[in-house]
Each structure stands twice: as structure tokens, then as C-alpha cells.
Predict the 3D structure of the following.
Amino acid sequence: MLIPRAKCRSHQMSGSFPSKPHDMTLNELYSAQSPTFSTLTSHSTKYLLTPPLQFISSRGNEYFCEIDEDYLTDRFNLTGLNTEVQYYQYALDLVTDVFDMEVDDDMREQIEKSARHLYGLVHARYIVTTRGLAKMLDKFKGGVFGKCPRVICESQHLLPMGQHDIPNASNVKLYCAKCEDIYNPKSSRHNSIDGAYFGTSFHNILFQVYPAMMPQKTQRRYEPRIYGFRVHASAALMRWQEEQREGMKERLRSRAIETGFEEEDEGLEAEESDDDEVEQKSQDGIDDMFEPPMPGVVGHQVVR
């Protein structure tokens, strides 16, 4: 992970690095920067600026949003993190672009690791603010976090979440609001991100603030079948689950509460009605085939 720009000097190098030319465009500046923070100490590096935008756009960091500078510099937002992060003050200076001291490579590596961890912990707090939610909503709409692999969810966009708020407890997971289940990221880069950098509440808060983003639930589900017949164990479980769901819907209707499945229920009732008519016609045809002949009638001839 990359951290916002820092002014660092290696003990192997003397003097200061040149500043950004005034006539250099932002895109040219980004293209001149190295892809990882550790490479800033190389002799071939000309510019030391690594803004948050490059951190966000680098591979493996797509799940993160850019934290506003005024949020990072407000000490109230960092309450309690000094006990969570090693070399906290150095890491904070690195994140807020005021770090400027000579350290050896081993120490620099430790500070950079702490700065990455600090940025992630602050990120978990930032994304539940108004600005943070808006930025993550844009990523959610764009499908940056991926789509649900469940076929019945019809490519519903996912949201990152953590199973724990404590760091180093579990990696980030992806939440689908349609099937209400969680999945592992496809990319190994994303799968290595700490889930605490997103927290356990962010995805639920987003749908509370933006209820229009909550997808319509569905009762459709896959039914295991063998030559058209439902597998007994699965069929028994599904019947029990359907009975529980129908009982829940009846309790909600008795209290005049919408179940959220009204439109789907109407469609299912129409399909069942059509199926019943087809079955009834088929049954009538079968009954006619086996209906005993009327007295005095043999085939189409009347016995006299």
C-alpha cells in the first residue's frame, strides 16, 4: 500500500530532492512517481510526491477511498489510535506529509508499515462520515467492489466489510445486499486487506443513509433436481424454509406490515394459476380416457 506523499531522505543519499516544477502537469507528475513507497529511496527517483490519489489508483487499493486532508489533520478523528499503531507520531507525520528526517532503511520500513496501518484504521472511521459514504457510494454504483457470484442475484454490486473491528482478526469480505451473504474477494491483492479497515457497520450504515440503493429481495432459489425430480433432502429443507417464510409473511400481513415480496407473490400466484389450469386440462383428458362407457353404448355404436 502507498501512503500520501512524504518527504524522506535516505542515509545513503545527501542533499534534498528537487521540488516539482511549476510547469509540470498533474498527470505528468503521477507518471513520474514510483508505484511503491519503498522505491522512493532509489537513486532513479526524481520526485517524492505520492498523493493519496496515486494510493487509491494503484493495483490492490481500489477498495479504499481518498481521505480528506482536513479529516486526517483533526486529532479528534484519531482518538485512541496512538495505542494501536507503532511509531504513531512518525506514521502520522508520514500520512499528513510533514515527515522529514533521516532514518535508516530498516526504520523507514517500520514507519511505512505503521503508516499504512494507520491510514487503514482512519479509513474505517472516515467511510462512515457523510463525505466518506458519498465517495464509497460512487464506487458501489460503479461496481468497483465487484458483483455477486450468485446467479439469482443477477450481478448485484457488492460492498466491502469486515467481520471484526479489531485489526488482524480477519481479511476483508464482500457483502451482497440482495442475498444478504458475504464472499471472499477474487483477487489475492484484495483478499489480503485487513477487514478492520472497513469495519462491521459501514455496509449497513450506507443502506440506512441511502435506502434507495437497497436492492429488491427475491424468493427465487435454486432447486436441486435429478431427471426433473427434486432431491429429497434438499426438497424437505426447502419446504420447511418456505413454510417458515410464509408464516413470517402471514404475521407481517396480520399487523398490516409490508413484506417486500408483494409484487413477486402476485407473479408467483399468476404462474401457479396457469400451471393449475394446464394440470386440470391434462387430468380431464386422462379421466376421459378411463371413463367407463355409458350403458347400451359400445364404442360409437348403440346396442339395440
In short: The chain has three domains: 9-126, 141-213, 221-262. The chain is about 40% helix and 10% strand. Confidence is low (pLDDT under 50) at residues 1-51.
